Each structure stands twice: as C-alpha cells, then as structure tokens.
Amino acid sequence: MAEKIKAFCSWSGGKESALSLYMAQQSGFEVTNLLTMANEEGTHSHTHEFDSSVLKAQSEALHVPLVQRKASWQTYEEEFMKAVSDIRDKGVGAGIFGDIDLIEHRQWVERVCSALGVTAVLPLWLMDRKELLRKFINFGFKAIVIAIDSRFMGEEWLGRELTTALIGDLKTLTNVDLCGEKGEYHTFVYDGPIFQKPVEFRTAGKVLRESHRLLGLECPETFRSERSPGKVGL
User: Fold this and answer.
1) Which of 25, 109, 204, 227 can bridge 216 by disulfide, Cβ–Cβ 3.0-4.6 Å?
2) pLDDT tens digit string along 14-31?
3) Does the pLDDT of residue 234 top 70, yes or no?
4) Using CA atoms, how far apart are residues 161 and 80, in angstroms rounded to an integer?
5) 45-54, pLDDT tens digit by residue?
C-alpha cells in the first residue's frame, strides 16, 4: 500500500474548508495540521473572524492540531509562507484549500506553495455550487450561519442551520452567491464525518462590523464527556 501524502488544511472553520478536508482524506491524504491565519493580536482569524477559542475547539473535536499564525494584512503572505515552511519541514508535502473558482486566489495559493516545494490541492475547484452544498449535507456535516453581509441578507439568517431548506431560501435571493463566495455569508461547522465528536458551543450575542453582522460564538476550553455536545442557546 502506497504511503499517504501528508498535508495541512487551510482552515477557516466554515463549510468549504471542512468539505475540502474530508474529500482530501477520501482521496488518500493524511491531514496532519489545520492552518489558520490570525490577526496581529492572535485573538481571531482573518477570514471568518472566529475567536481563537472556537478554532481550538474545532481542532480538538477533529483531533487535528491547529497552527495559528499572527499577521497583519501587510505581512499576511510573508507569515503564511513562514507557517507553511515550518509545517513542510515536518514532512508535510501538500496543502488543502477550499477554493471553488476564484482564479486570483488559486494563482496566489499555487505560487506561494510552489515556492516552498509544497503541492496545492483544491478538491472543490469548479464544483457546481448546488452539488457542493448537497455533498456537504449528504455527507453528514452540520453547520450554522454565523455572519452575513447586511447589504445582501437580513439578520434573521444568523444562527440558521445549513439545510436543504436554507439552500432553497438562498436561491430566492438576488445577487447572493449560493455558497457565499463574495462574502455574503459565512458558516461555522460543528459536526460531520471528519469530527471525532461534535463541537460544544453557545452563541454570545451579535456584533456589527461595518456592513457585516456576526453571531458571537463561545466554546469551552476543555470538553467534558458527560455534557451533551452540540449547539445551545441559539
């Protein structure tokens, strides 16, 4: 049997990164790390603005170690390459990315990975939006909407489960990408086939940042098996 190629997964905590990780595993990759770029203070991620404790809770539930790298937007590429270089030096030869069709980002990913001798793998590339969401649900993943751009979507979307019904409702909206690829909405994945246990969390109010409305999330630092995991307090 051929030895599995070790890979890190560029991790946002949302549906595309979770699905790409799963599909990479199914293709024979061994995912050894999650990689998330954080703000300069290390308090939250650059992409979905998840609190660091939420990302750590996902990492623990996945049983996959999390690497968080602090960076400003000005130093993002430099710090990303340093993080990938450190991971590569531990025998990791590939990076998993959840891009769908944004060619500029694919070109960036492939450029920085190639410079480090790492293969960029994009399992979701050019996948039909409806097919992507269908796979996500049918594979058994569970996620909620945790951020919306109020220019396109109302606050009532926050906290909704990503289900077939939600997809149907998304189709009725104008100027909204079905997967939220223009930042119309973001999701938080808390269960699915890649998780060893569901992520325990609770909601903690709503925050307005420019045009974006975010649902606060809190996760305990440690999980206790006697407590019922999953979402509470929505």
Assistant:
1) 204
2) 999 999 999 999 999 999
3) no
4) 32
5) 877 677 888 9
Residues 164-199: tens digit of each pLDDT:
999 999 999 989 999 999 999 999 999 999 999 999
| Same-domain check for residues 12 and 98 | yes
Nearest-CA neighbor of 200 among 52, 55, 62, 57?
57
Predicted model pTM: 0.91
Per-residue pLDDT at 233: 37
Whether residue 136 lies inside any domain: the answer is: no
Q: Are residues 108 and 146 both part of a single domain?
A: no
3-state secondary structure of 144: strand
Residue 128: inside a domain:
no
Residue 183, domain extent: 142-232
59 contact partners, CB below 8 Å, separation of at least 6: 34, 65, 66
SS3 of residue 53 by DSSP? helix
Query: What DSSP string runs through 76-133?
Result: HHHHHHHHHHHHHTTT--EEE---SS-HHHHHHHHHHHHHTT-EEE-TTTT--HHHHH
The Cα-based distances of 2 to 5, 28, 43, 87 in angstroms read 9, 9, 40, 22
Query: Is there a single domain that holds both residue 106 and residue 161?
Result: no
